[in-house]
Specification:
This protein is of the alpha/beta class and 228 residues long. The chain has helices at residues 41-48, 74-78, 96-105, 111-124, 140-152, 170-185, 197-203, and strands at 2-10, 16-25, 30-34, 56-61, 64-65, 81-85, 158-162, 189-193, 206-211, 214-219. It has a domain at 89-155. 32% of the residues lie in helices and 26% in strands. Strand 4 (56-61) and strand 5 (64-65) form a beta hairpin. Helix 4 (111-124) packs across helix 5 (140-152) and helix 5 (140-152) packs parallel to helix 6. This is Cell division ATP-binding protein FtsE. It is found in: Cell membrane.
């Protein structure tokens, strides 16, 4: 599903963010990416959906080498990858239904298909009753659930989440994690960068720890570790 081979990333200011990473993530895995601030976690995550390009090395997603992918092919790639952000990134002038449907409309999906798919994912995230609401009428947890629904509307093989519970209270964070676990149980690979020690230690998934741009720990049923 995801494979990185000898991956390096140096930014234009000379900062070496990723320093020779080799890793493989199989279909259906649930992986936490942890480490101290500035360790390279966000760069690691962003390279998976081509927000950032590696300076050197190979990144394969479903057999496609992202390092050599042409810019015009990036939108097509992202339709096969769900991405969830800490700050939701919802379109404020669109309703919940419209925010989720948008991803299908831009690829020309039939209206009846769009309606069925949107209602199905709203059912999964338990927000059917908010379909006509606008983002500013929702709580933070509800906005994140809309963001998750939008990320899986195209049935992606992998969902990549960058600190998805970072702006949420503990109870709401667990509600969000339960949704991610349900998505994973349906066969979708989940890769999540997080600072949430309690969630990582409780859920006992695979943990990849990054420090100084390198993978320093990779455990099948790992824990968060000690970071400031």
């Amino acid at each position: 599903m995801i494979e990185m081979t000898d991956v390096y990333k140096t930014y234009s200011n000379g900062v070496l963010a990723i320093n020779g990473i080799n890793v493989k993530i199989d279909q259906g895995e649930f992986v936490y990416v942890v480490g101290p601030s500035g360790a390279g976690k966000s760069t690691f995550i962003k390279m998976m959906y081509r927000e950032e390009k590696p300076t050197d090395g190979k990144i394969l997603i479903n057999g496609v080498n992202l390092a050599k992918l042409r810019e015009k092919k990036v939108p097509q790639l992202r339709r096969s990858i769900g991405v969830v952000f800490q700050d939701f990134k919802l379109l404020p002038k669109l309703t919940v239904y419209e925010n989720i449907a948008f991803a299908l409309e831009v690829i020309g999906e039939q209206p009846r298909v769009i309606k069925k798919k949107v209602l199905d994912v709203l059912d999964l995230v338990q927000l059917k009753h908010k379909a006509r609401s606008f983002p500013n009428e929702l709580s933070g947890g509800e906005q994140q659930r809309v963001s998750i629904a939008r990320s899986i509307i195209n049935n992606p093989g992998v969902v990549i989440a960058d600190e998805p519970t970072g702006n949420l209270d503990p109870d709401t964070s667990w509600e969000i994690m339960n949704i991610f676990e349900e998505i994973n149980n349906r066969g979708t690979t989940v890769v999540m960068a997080t600072h949430n020690r309690e969630i990582v230690n409780t859920m006992k998934k695979r943990v990849i720890a990054i420090e100084g741009g390198k993978i320093v720990r990779d455990e099948a049923r790992g824990e968060y570790g000690i970071y400031d």
